[in-house]
Structure formats: C-alpha cells, structure tokens
Amino acid sequence: MRRVYMDHNATTPVHPEVLEAMMPFFRDQFGNASSIHWAGREVKKYLDEAREKVAALLHASPEEIIFTGCGTESDNMAIKGVAFALKEKGRHIITTQVEHHAVLHTCQFLENMGYEVTYLPVDGEGLIDLEELRRSIKAETILITIMFANNETGTIFPVQEIGEVAREKGVIFHTDAVQAVGKLPIDLQQLPVDILSLSGHKLYSPKGIGAQYIRQGTKLTSLIHGGAQERSRRAGTENIPYIIGLGKASEIALRDFQKRQIHLNASRDRLNQEIIKRVPHVKRNGHPTQRLPNTLNMSFLFIEGESLLLNLDLEGIAVSSGSACTSGSLEPSHVLLAMGIPHEIAQSAIRFSLGWNNTEEDIDYVVEALPRIVKRLRDMSPLYHKMITTGKT
Predict the structure, then answer these.
(1) Spatial distance between the Cα atoms of 82 and 92, rounded to a whole number of angstroms
(2) pLDDT by residue (tens digit) across 79-107?
(3) 325 a catalytic residue
C-alpha cells in the first residue's frame, strides 16, 4: 500500500541536509556555548551562525533572534512577556477568535489574572475587519496578537495593515507566524511587526526547537530564569544540535523559496481542481486567493470529517481534520465555526497541507481513493439520502 503524507501543517519530516548538519553536535562538538574554553568557543561559533541564518530568512538582525523550545513557548513568551512588562500601562489585549490554542489559551490564562482580552470576529473567508480592530484599541491596550496565516484554512492575515494600526496607536504587535515562515516572504525590515513566533518542526527541522524575533527596544519580561543565555531573554543551556538544525532549515528555506512556492501552489491547485471535478457537494473553506500555497481545507457535505480521515488513513493517506493540537476533540473546528460555517459543514472538513516532497503521483493516489471513500460514507448517511430523495438537507 502506498503511503502519502499531506499533513505538513501538523509537522514536517526532517530535511536530510538538516539531519546531516545536526549529527556532529551529538558526537564531537558537544560543548556548552556558555563555557569559555575551546569546547565552548567552538560551539558558540556555530550557535551564532545558526542565529544569522534564521535572521536572514526573516530579514532581521541576528541580535533580534532568540531561540526557544517550540512555537507554543514562543507565543507564551511574547504574550505573557508583554503583559507582565507593561501591566502598569494597561491590561488590555486584542486577538482573534481563530488563533491557535497556544495564543487563545494564553490569553484565557491572563484573563484569569485580571487582564481584559478582546477576541475579534472574522468574516466568512476568515479575515478580520481592520476598522473593528481600530475601534477596539483603547488607552489600556498594550498588545495586539494576530496570526500571520491560519493553520487550518491557510488564510493570510493583512499583517502589514495590522502593524500600521498598532504603530499608529503605540501598541506592541505580535504575530504567530508558525505556519507562514518558509512558505511566505517575510521581511521584518519592512513589516511593522514587533514580535514574531516561529517553530522549527513546521520548517523541516526537528520538533523541540523554536525561535522568537523581538524588535530592538521592545519591552518583554522573561518567563524562564536561571542564566544569562539568549541575551537574558530565555535562561537555560542552548539546545545546540536542534538550533543548528533550525539554522540549516532556514538556510534551505531561503535558498529553495521560489522553487517550493511554484511546486506547492501548483500541487495545491491541482488537488483542489481534481477534488471538485471528481467529488460532488464539496465546499472550500478560507480565502480563495489570500492563502498559504500549501493548504487546502474542504468540507465534504453529508459525512463527518473524522470518518473520512480514518478511512483515508486505511488507504495510507495522512491528512487532518483540523489543528493537530486538538485532534482528540470531537467538536468542530473553532476556526470554521468562527467563520460562520454551520456546525454540520464544519464537522465535515478535512485539511490537506502539502510539502515540498509531495509528488504528482501522490495527488493521483489521493484523488483516486477519495471519491470512492466519500461515496461509501455517503451511502451510509441519512442526511445524504434525505437530500437525494427530497432535495433538502
């Protein structure tokens, strides 16, 4: 049986060049970068080079890059760090209803500590109203935290415009760019972003490494104490092998950016077209053009997304019914519900997220299996039979 992996928004395989770059730091170059002797100095040099590579991908200064344990830690570090640093100025935060739970749950934690959070709604394509954002800002607002691109639908937010509103009002702007880094051009010399979070395992480096861009001059309280590592922003001995891996992945992402963009856009569009051609009663979710090049979220009406996911898995096809962090939930996606999609349609959604190594043969295999599985599930669906016999759902 063929195996096809189309869940790259959940995690990516480690790139062979990344693994090769990491291996010496598990064996020979084992020093602590904080040590002043030869073993530490050797490793420190490679740590600095990795920081430069991440900075280059974002068009930032190396001094503005801090390594973390993952994207979730980076989000926590940004939101709590600003909240604690500026609590005397105000305790109001603005976010959206469709953020990743790393942001939503952090905001809810702060609400329990007495902070006020405004959760902006989105329209049917997953975008916020910029005027509503502007109206939501008040004297006590200290932080706007809005994702760069949505992990479920791929919808890209107007980060430039959001940042301009934040700058105009004197509010710090953080963006969770976990799904955007490496897939979209990001120039932090031009974008008015103060803090940006990213995750290594969405970028073909291992799980357990992330990074934070913090614009020079941005006030942020450290969450982890115990050492002066990472410019005293994040204490703890640096995870050198994984940092090297993230640096190499960033270098590859910059090197192969155009080639990947062309491949992912073409693959996603072909998958979209073939599904629409072969499977009736489907609905694409998210913005039609303002979306990630690799992400396709579709609802297959009259069946449950979880049933479809499990049947695709039996055929060796790995996809998702939403965020990997909520895969144990039977509830529909909070993102799709916030977009105004009815409960039963949201519950029928599947996310395909492609990677640089997906082939045309992978797409052929998926679009051959999918209609057969959908038909089998619909044949067992009372809702589908009702629609066939009465024309009503």
Answers:
(1) 11
(2) 999 999 999 999 999 999 999 999 999 99
(3) yes
